[in-house]
Amino acid sequence: MVKYLISACLVGQQVRYDGQDCLEAKLNALIENGQAICVCPEVIGGLSIPRRPAEIMGGDGADVLAGRAKVIDTAGVDVTEAFINGAQVALKLAQDHHVSHVILKANSPSCGSQLIYDGSFSGQKIVGNGVTAALLKQHGFQVWTEQVFLDHLKEVS
Ligand code: SF4
Questions:
Q1: What spacing in Å lies between the alpha carbon of 71 and ligand 1's midpoint?
Q2: What are 88-99's pLDDT values in tens digits?
Q3: Among 30, 64, 66, 152, fewest CB within 10 Å belongs to which?
């Protein structure tokens, strides 16, 4: 039975902006044994692989959803709509599969759930959620970073 929704890059899909993945073998094992499904909100929202890096300017994911902040890429292109579209698809997947936990890649402007980059493209981070993490939390889902989840797995094993 599906219990988890996981960022696609964490299970080995090469969907990051730079065409790479961030494979965590223990998370991919959850896909292989049917306990998890995955999504890349940015790609399913309409962005390409590779694509220019983007950051949230003027707030965090909740601010983007409320129309108070935007997601802008390194060429200055406004990609807010794609980020919101992808978040909505991820939410529908989580709801349709009744997942108990969502495990999303740390620091991403879509998937980050503790810290995100601050919009200056300088590597600085601020406390906040990415757009998808914010939408899922607003709908009652528990969202964990991969490290928090992997630490939890160690504790219970
Ligand atoms: Fe896609 Fe999220 Fe991974 Fe970025 S962090 S590549 S949006 S799954």
A1: 14
A2: 999 999 999 999
A3: 66
Whole-model pTM above 0.85? Answer: yes
CB half-sphere exposure, 137, CA atoms < 13 A: 20
Q: What domain range includes position 14?
A: 4-156
How many domains is the chain built from? Answer: 1
Ligand 1 centroid, distance to 104 Cα (angstroms) = 8
Write down the pLDDT at residue 1: 86
CB burial of 76-97 (b: ≥16 within 10 Å; e: otherwise) equals: eeebbebbbbbbbbbbebbeee
- How far is CA 7 from each of CA 87, 107, 132, 136, rounded to the nearest angstrom? 12, 12, 10, 13
**Per-residue pLDDT reduced to its tens digit, 61-119:** 999 999 999 999 999 999 999 999 999 999 999 999 999 999 999 999 999 999 999 99
Cα-atom radius of gyration of the chain, to the nearest Å? 14
Q: Whose CA is nearest to atom 3 of ligand 1?
A: 9
